[in-house]
Design brief:
Largest sheet: none
Number of helices: 5
Mean pLDDT: 90
Protein name: Tripartite tricarboxylate transporter TctB family protein
Helix content: over 70%
Radius of gyration: 18 Å
Order of helices and strands: HHHHH
Keywords: Membrane, Transmembrane, Transmembrane helix
Strand content: under 5%
Organism: Bosea thiooxidans
Low-confidence stretches: none
Structural class: mainly alpha
Shape: globular
Distance between the termini: 49 Å
C-alpha cells in the first residue's frame, strides 16, 4: 500500500505548522530575555528553525520524487512506543537529570525503532550524555 500525495502534503504542513508554533508562540512565551550574552531563546529558536528547514526539504523531496512512498503500518504500536519513550525520558529527566536523560532517551528511542547494532546506540548515548553533561554541569 502506498501513501497519497495529499498525505505527504498534510504531514509536511502539520510538522511545519508545529515548528512555526514553536518559533513564534511556544518558545517566546517560555523564555525570557537574558541579561548579558545570548538570549535563552537562541538555541531553541535555532533548533526549531533547523527542524522546520529539514521538514520542508524532506517534504519537497518526497513530493517531487517519482517513487511511491510506502504507507505507515496499521495500528497504534508505533504511537505507543513513542509515548513510552517520551514517558521514560520524562521520568529519567525528573529523577536523574538532564545528562542522564540525554544519554538514555535517544538510546531507548533507537531501540524502540528497531536499531539492534550496539555501536550506534552506545555512541549516541555517550556523545549526547557527554555533551549535555559538559553543558549542564
Amino acid at each position: 500500500m502506498t501513501r497519497s500525495r495529499a498525505s505527504l502534503l498534510a504531514e509536511m504542513l502539520l510538522l511545519g505548522g508545529g515548528c512555526l508554533a514553536l518559533l513564534f508562540w511556544i518558545i517566546p512565551t517560555q523564555t525570557s530575555e537574558g541579561g548579558f550574552g545570548l538570549s535563552p531563546a537562541f538555541l531553541p529558536n535555532i533548533l526549531a528553525a533547523a527542524i522546520l528547514l529539514l521538514v520542508l526539504a524532506d517534504g519537497v523531496l518526497r513530493l517531487t520524487a517519482r517513487r511511491p512512498e510506502s504507507a505507515y503500518p496499521a495500528g497504534f504500536g508505533a504511537l505507543a512506543r513513542s509515548l513510552a519513550v517520551a514517558g521514560f525520558g520524562a521520568i529519567v529527566l525528573a529523577y536523574a537529570g538532564v545528562a542522564a536523560s540525554a544519554a538514555l532517551t535517544p538510546a531507548a528511542g533507537m531501540l524502540a525503532l528497531g536499531e539492534r547494532r550496539p555501536l550506534p546506540v552506545l555512541a549516541t548515548s555517550a556523545l549526547l550524555g557527554g555533551a549535555f553533561w559538559l553543558v549542564f554541569r
